[in-house]
Design a protein that fits this description.
single chain; mainly beta; Jelly Rolls; 49% strand; globular
Length: 316
């Protein structure tokens, strides 16, 4: 009997005793909000659907979206109102995986044309992140001020865990188009991106938000995966990793001119400036988590890229 018991114990993976994975709220990607919004007649008046990750329901009309039912997720899907014209941009969709749904992040070119008023093409890389997007979008300027990146968080996970499948057109180009100015094409293809960043934030007397980097996990995908990769782990490294052998420049501190924004105690949107690396044993105050079909630069991407994401959790 003792011998049989020992064999049974040895057959159980060791990690089941030493670590666990907690699914993030709505991280199974099975529940979605469907928004039915009619675009302005001057650009065709089509009824468009715009999706959000959250409790299953349908919202009719062009009211600005702000989740009030517990979902921490936001996406690049937005309703814009530019010079009085209502336009919907949707590049993140629910996708049938067979046994449940997943999120499909696509890189697309959004067109908006109205004779005599507006004529713009904008590259949108489907993006999903923890935080908020503020509607309606009224211009393509200062994109980081239109979103609040990060949520309060004080744990220290070992890794981000998720399932993914990526398709990147092998013969595609990298396209830049912000809607104003000439569209530009660059050789090569864009990369899909995932990051998990832990920060310790504080606010000074003037309302400025400061931060130090507590934990880092960041990776880029430059080619198609050839199918689903399940249970993929992105390790979180703590403290200053700039001299570690695995360090890549894109894992470094966020440059001040590319800082994401958050609301301060006065309700003002302020850049969150990373001022240095924190100690390896520091406790974070905020979690930043993003999946994107592009490499993070606004209005840049390889048209036709598809990034499917499912079962997002944190390992401890």
């Amino acid at each position: 009997m003792t011998r049989i018991l020992c064999l049974l114990l040895l057959s159980v993976p060791f990690y089941s005793f030493s670590q666990k994975t907690e699914l993030l709220p709505f991280g199974d990607m099975d529940r979605w909000v469907t928004r039915n919004i009619q675009e302005s007649r001057i650009i065709g008046g089509d009824m468009k659907q715009c999706y959000a990750v959250g409790p299953t329901r349908t919202i009719e009309g062009d009211e600005p979206y702000s989740d009030t039912q517990g979902s921490p997720w936001a996406t690049s899907n937005v309703m814009a109102k530019v010079v009085g014209i209502t336009k919907v941009s949707n590049a993140v969709y629910p996708h049938d995986r067979g046994a449940g749904k997943c999120a499909r992040l696509s890189t697309i070119m959004e067109h908006c044309k109205a004779i005599g008023l507006i004529n713009i093409d904008v590259v949108v890389a489907g993006t999903m992140f923890l935080g908020k997007m503020f509607e309606p979008i009224k211009s393509t300027s200062e994109p980081y001020k239109k979103m609040e990146m990060g949520i309060p968080f004080n744990k220290r996970p070992k890794a981000l865990v998720y399932d993914y499948m990526i398709t990147i057109p092998a013969d595609g180009n990298k396209t830049y188009s912000s809607g104003f100015g000439k569209k530009k094409e660059y050789p090569g293809t864009d990369k899909a991106e995932v990051f998990i960043i832990l920060q310790r934030r504080w606010e000074d007397g003037d309302g400025n938000i400061h931060a130090r980097r507590v934990g880092t996990g960041r990776e880029l995908f430059g080619k198609s995966s050839g199918g689903w990769v399940n249970g993929h782990q992105l390790e979180v490294h703590y403290g200053d990793i700039s001299s570690k052998p695995f360090f890549k420049p894109y894992m470094g501190l966020i440059a001040a001119d590319k800082s994401y924004c958050a609301r301060n105690s006065k309700g003002e949107m302020m850049p969150v400036v990373e001022e240095g690396w924190d100690s390896p044993d520091a406790t974070p105050t905020h979690l930043l988590l993003m999946f994107s079909a592009g490499s993070g630069e606004p209005y840049v991407g390889t048209i036709g890229t598809e990034f499917l994401v499912d079962n997002v959790g944190l390992m401890y």
